[in-house]
Amino acid sequence: MNEETTIDTQELGEKIVKVLKTIYDPEIPVDIYELGLIYDVFVNEEYEVKILMTLTSPNCPVAETLPVEVEEKVKSIDVLKDVEVEITFDPPWTQELMSEEAKLELGLL
């Protein structure tokens, strides 16, 4: 049995979250995961990933580049076969979605 077959989807999910925590919104010094921009991460048995995310606003200056960066960085995890990033504005992002850590970092607590 090789190493690839022993990776479970939960472990893979954690790896994906680690990668997401390296991506920052250029306007806010907090990573996109802590900001609450990642709504969901789906991983199936075929090692295909779908990430449902939002942006701080529909007019976000990185609307074109951020999803591409997310896709490319997550694709860097070797075992993944496919990564799809879907942007949604339902529900719209609000500061309530930020983690306590992010709120603290931005002086909102």
UniProtKB/TrEMBL annotation:
All residue ranges annotated as the MIP18 family-like domain in the record: 14-87
Name of this chain's protein: MIP18 family-like domain-containing protein
